[in-house]
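Re-running the complex after MR caught last week's input typo. The corrected sequence lines follow. Everything else is unchanged.
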Amino acid sequence: MTNLNVPGLGTFDDIAAYVDGVGNAARIAARALARADTAAKNAALTEMAEAIRRDEARLLAANAEDVNAARAARKDAAFVDRLTLTPTAIAAMADGLREIAALPDPVGEISDVKYRPSGIQVGMMRVPLGVIAIIYESRPNVTADAAALCLKSGNATILRGGSEALRSNQAIAACVHKGLRSAGLPESAVQVIATSDRAAVGHLIADEKHIDVIVPRGGKGLIERISRDAKVPVIKHLDGVCHVYIDARANLDQAMRIADNAKTQRYGTCNTMETLLVHADIATSVLPPLADIYERKGVELRGCARSRAIVSSMKTATEDDWYAEYLAPILAVRVVDSVDDAIDHIARYGSQHTDAIVTDDHVNAMRFLREVDSSSVLVNASTRFADGFEYGLGAEIGISTNKLHARGPVGLEGLTSRKWIVLGTGQIRT
Amino acid sequence: MTNLNVPGLGTFDDIAAYVDGVGNAARIAARALARADTAAKNAALTEMAEAIRRDEARLLAANAEDVNAARAARKDAAFVDRLTLTPTAIAAMADGLREIAALPDPVGEISDVKYRPSGIQVGMMRVPLGVIAIIYESRPNVTADAAALCLKSGNATILRGGSEALRSNQAIAACVHKGLRSAGLPESAVQVIATSDRAAVGHLIADEKHIDVIVPRGGKGLIERISRDAKVPVIKHLDGVCHVYIDARANLDQAMRIADNAKTQRYGTCNTMETLLVHADIATSVLPPLADIYERKGVELRGCARSRAIVSSMKTATEDDWYAEYLAPILAVRVVDSVDDAIDHIARYGSQHTDAIVTDDHVNAMRFLREVDSSSVLVNASTRFADGFEYGLGAEIGISTNKLHARGPVGLEGLTSRKWIVLGTGQIRT
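Corrected-run output:
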């Protein structure tokens, strides 16, 4: 590994020194970004979008090299699919940048300013986190998307994509740099790690001096590995074992629609329902017609004994099924005796991601909202709504299952924090 | 190490199993606390205060045993002072509990509820973090204070105080348990680790399954050790290298008062000024009279060459002085040429804790507020105001120098986070 270049800082011939150099350059750029005004950030984002459109041919060519190499390395079809850029994907990437330019700038927002008895005014100002490292897998569009969200929220970014996408990512980064340059912002505000050596990840996640937060995006294996080894705080997404609980006093029509949609609208997403809980009083009304819907759509049902007494075609659920995130057309089904039992089941087996109740009972709705400790709790709506766009964030960097800082969909605000500001007229403490 | 008891869970004869049992009991209690209503939490806090008053003699007796043992172990006077409970300190502890009872309950607060085009209403609800472990040193009053803040914010608490204070802490915990019991809340909502074996700390900070956040309170050595080894997120306070910058257009009278107060009101606090920056245009007016004030109060000045040219009695500041958190009557002094130089100095040498500008120049005040990346940034007020009580939080668990989650003084809100709530009328995602 030789001659890794960090613009403005020179050339490095070992990975640790290189990553340290990248971190140092990011830390310097972060100060310029934190004070960059909204117009400059938006101009950079708009010019990035234009550069991506203009450079379509170059992006496709770089991507074709990555795709050919992946095919030669016998990567599977799903992998190649995630890696492949098309003209449509490139246009979507450019549009995404323009959408982020159009979002309100969270940085500098001042709130809650109040006078204190001492005469000082105390309030809060929203500020960037500083330097964010994004570690992702093979999707090259993350390069533009993550860089744009971090830039708009005033953060410097270090991007470490999958090694198989390195040429695509560098071609996209060239467009990002054109945008930054045109707006007078430092190119080192967005850096792509220029080596496929895996040691770089180890150095990044340990670099507390230069990096404020790590955002891993990808499969569970990647996220667990990074969370286990990181010294830098991680905004992470682990399991999505999501529940829909159909209460005794549910509107039957709503219950059917929501249970159907939460499971079958998309099978592979983190906010897809994995376990259906049904109150015993309504189970005989709701389970047979629901089972028909699921059967038509090819969803395998795995039920508790009481569910199977109602729908005999269900397979038997084992203890493992209650913990399972299938991400597939499989659904665990359990009959419960009360909203308490439903809440207990979710506390025991759930992943604190997204859970919904269907009910017309006000008391049970309010109890479920308060007592279910998940990043999204819904009443009479599909779990599939747990999403940054649906919530109105405009864009999301991911969904956090952390309990500190941001929970659930993380948009621009989740990439900032708030500092205290004090406005005085010469006050001293006595 | 034998027979460590966790009420309701049995007796353990090894530290790892014991800490796991404590964590498990805390996790169960956390669910009860999260749904406890404000009246129950306040009743518990009020009864704790009364029990502490009633049990004064028992607390003093238990504390005397700890103090005698510490003296026998030749602990220094400052240590014994921190360890010692007096009737006044006990009364203050009880008053502190009543003050926390009187604060608004942050749990369940619903905010920002808006309709989305899909027809769902999306908002946020403030919720407890879950289980908080507080690791502290010899001050027994932290036992009551930390337990109360965690309880009011709906969290279960595991307390691990200094081994030298174990008898005092257990006596205080008995009062805490009386309060919990009288309000119908589980005693395991607040648990004191019943062993002085240091291995317990190692197990606690690694217990991601049961503990949501660690709050270390004490010296820098303790905090660094815990931060380095913890697997659980840590809300921590590291250095407080705080600056006051006197700008060219400062009001001279305000500048003198603030620079005096920020350094001399208390020397040992984390928000005490450690470096004074003075604009060159005002240095000859401000430094000589300030030097007189500091000299009268016995503050040693260590200046840059330009400061020393104005006040020849200053010692010479070395590079190390700019990084120093003296916590003592010593002050580093530097003359700078602009607000940019002041901001650069703070970015380079500061600790992102608390920094102030004294100026009548609006542009410089606004730039300093925005560009200084510290948890508290003040204009025309003493750095000593960076404090939960002064900010109106009512109480504080500490001051965070983290960038994620809470920055600066952490009160009840900092011990909570916000989850997303969705109120629908049967909506599904299309």
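None of the earlier attempt is carried over here. The first strand of chain B starts at residue 4 and ends at 6. Chain B has a mean pLDDT of 95.
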